[in-house]
């Protein structure tokens, strides 16, 4: 069941979103060759807790980290570890924060130092696909208008959209109804209404759309070993469009 949030609930989610944004901005300062994903995890937890929030992911279904840290061909759910980043890597950091009982969630894929042109194009297209989708997030529209817009944009740039992992509702629970695929036909699914809180998070592969899960039962990687990217915002549907609750302050000028 999809439940529209009250103004008071949205205010709490807005605070959670600010904390997520501050966490990502702080992490971006530390992304460089040599730092480990476990060190980034510790920084994130400190920022989240120092603002009176709780890391949404830590302990969630047994996940051990405060962030998901996924490098290169790792799509989602990468476990923070002693792995050190290297020049030319990319890293997706997914952050969630729970503030006074309400969650916000955002992910961003960052370059580590200088990256090659094709990887940069992958990041640019994936980021822009998020905003193409958000342009369809408005009251009275059908949910899959978001899905269709993202798929059309990504495939026009000759990348592929992952099917197995989707966006979701959010609020008192990290994952709520509805599920939001990033592919499919338009004009399907529920009608968007003011107060709906959603996480839109296109996951895009440089090669085929297929993925697999590693032996740790968490880390999802591309099946062909090629790189991937993931960008996510928490939004709320408003009377005339949507409000992004997790502005990172590092969006590209075209966003």
UniProtKB/TrEMBL annotation:
UniProt superkingdom = Bacteria
Any GO BP: proteolysis
**Sites where the protein binds substrate:** 77, 175
Q: Which UniProt keywords apply?
A: Aminopeptidase, Hydrolase, Metal-binding, Protease
| Listed transmembrane segments | none
Residues engaged in binding a divalent metal cation 2: 105, 168, 201, 232
Q: Which GO terms describe its molecular function?
A: initiator methionyl aminopeptidase activity; metal ion binding; metalloaminopeptidase activity
Q: For this protein, what reaction is catalysed?
A: Release of N-terminal amino acids, preferentially methionine, from peptides and arylamides
Cofactor(s) for this UniProt protein: Co(2+); Zn(2+); Mn(2+); Fe(2+)
Binding residues for a divalent metal cation 1, per the UniProt record? 94, 105, 232
Annotated Gene Ontology cellular components are: cytosol
- Broadest EC class? hydrolase
Q: Report the residue ranges that make up the Peptidase M24 domain in this protein.
A: 12-239
Q: Per the similarity annotation, which family is this?
A: Belongs to the peptidase M24A family. Methionine aminopeptidase type 1 subfamily.
Quaternary structure, per UniProt, is:
Monomer.
Give the function comment from the record.
Removes the N-terminal methionine from nascent proteins. The N-terminal methionine is often cleaved when the second residue in the primary sequence is small and uncharged (Met-Ala-, Cys, Gly, Pro, Ser, Thr, or Val). Requires deformylation of the N(alpha)-formylated initiator methionine before it can be hydrolyzed.
Q: Which PANTHER family match?
A: METHIONINE AMINOPEPTIDASE (PTHR43330)
Its name, as the record gives it, is Methionine aminopeptidase
Which species is this UniProt entry from? Geobacillus thermopakistaniensis (strain MAS1)
The lineage, from the top, is: Bacteria, Bacillati, Bacillota, Bacilli, Bacillales
Protein's gene = map
């Amino acid at each position: 069941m999809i439940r529209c949030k009250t103004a008071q609930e949205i205010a709490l989610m807005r605070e959670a979103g600010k904390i997520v944004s501050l966490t990502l901005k702080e992490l971006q300062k530390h992304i460089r060759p040599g730092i480990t994903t476990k060190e980034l995890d510790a920084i994130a937890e400190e920022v989240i807790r120092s603002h009176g929030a709780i890391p949404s992911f830590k302990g969630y279904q047994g996940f051990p980290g405060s962030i998901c840290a996924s490098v290169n061909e790792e799509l989602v759910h990468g476990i923070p570890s002693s792995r050190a980043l290297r020049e030319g890597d990319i890293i997706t950091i997914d952050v969630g924060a729970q503030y006074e009982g309400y969650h916000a969630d955002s992910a961003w894929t960052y370059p580590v130092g200088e990256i090659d042109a094709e990887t940069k194009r992958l990041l640019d297209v994936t980021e822009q696909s998020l905003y193409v989708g958000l342009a369809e997030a408005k009251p009275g529209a059908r949910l899959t208008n978001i899905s269709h817009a993202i798929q059309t944009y990504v495939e026009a740039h000759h990348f592929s959209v992952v099917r197995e992992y989707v966006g979701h509702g959010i609020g008192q629970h990290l994952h709520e109804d509805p599920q939001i695929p990033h592919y499919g036909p338009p004009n399907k699914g529920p009608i968007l209404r003011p107060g709906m809180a959603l996480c839109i998070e296109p996951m895009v592969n440089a090669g085929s759309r297929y993925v697999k899960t590693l032996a740790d039962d968490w880390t999802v990687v591309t099946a062909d070993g090629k790189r991937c990217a993931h960008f996510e915002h928490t939004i709320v549907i408003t009377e005339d469009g949507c409000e992004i609750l997790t502005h990172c302050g590092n969006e590209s000028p075209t966003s």
